[in-house]
Design a protein that fits this description.
By secondary structure, the protein is mainly alpha-helical. The chain is built from six helices and no strands. It has one domain. It has helices at about 5-30, 35-60, 60-65, 65-90, 95-120, 125-130. Bound molecules: protoporphyrin IX containing FE. Keywords: Membrane, Transmembrane, Transmembrane helix. InterPro entries: Cyt_c_oxase-like_su1_sf.
């Protein structure tokens, strides 16, 4: 994927902006009924995406992989399905979107685990010649 950290961070900022405007709207109207949907938009859309963006910034060879592109689409899709899904479930309409979004959210974390195990963390193993999975800085 091209520019994986930038894509993850930019999308995280967009989700945070939406989530915060929604939070202000909830506060202003004193209607907190949909706060779980707001919470998940912020936590998966902003916090989790930022964690993934940080990982791909630390691990550029993972960021360039096709798995990173798929991971980006999966995480974005999970947020876009789960957030309205929770709102619809709370308002008693349908639980189907929340169920699909939950599965997508679980898959995105499973894929993250797979990517970390496959590519390590930092300029790893195959690049640095170590099998520790961690970055090794040259001695000063
Ligand atoms: C402008 C910024 C924000 C405003 C005005 C705002 C406002 C609110 C309000 C009014 C509630 C309902 C509280 C209640 O009913 O007890 C809430 C809940 C929540 N917010 Fe925010 N929020 C903001 C940003 C964030 C951010 C950045 C995050 C996470 C990174 C976040 C996570 C949550 C969570 C986890 C809940 C609880 C959800 C639940 O009850 O299930 N919020 N927020």
């Amino acid at each position: 994927m091209k520019n994986a950290p930038k894509m993850f961070f930019a999308t995280a900022a967009l989700f945070a902006l939406c989530g915060m405007v929604w939070g202000i709207q909830m506060s202003a109207t004193h209607d907190h009924a949909l706060s779980p949907a707001h919470g998940h938009l912020n936590l998966i859309g902003f916090v989790m995406m930022s964690v993934f963006g940080t990982y791909y910034a630390l691990t550029p060879h993972a960021g360039r992989s096709r798995a990173a592109g798929f991971h980006y689409l999966l995480t974005t899709g999970a947020v876009l399905v789960l957030t309205p899904g929770i709102a619809l479930a709370i308002s008693g309409q349908t639980e189907v979107l929340a169920q699909i979004g939950s599965v997508l959210a679980v898959l995105t974390v499973a894929l993250f685990g797979f990517v970390v195990l496959k590519y390590g963390v930092g300029h790893t193993s195959h690049e640095a010649g170590s099998d520790s999975g961690m970055t090794t800085q040259p001695a000063e």
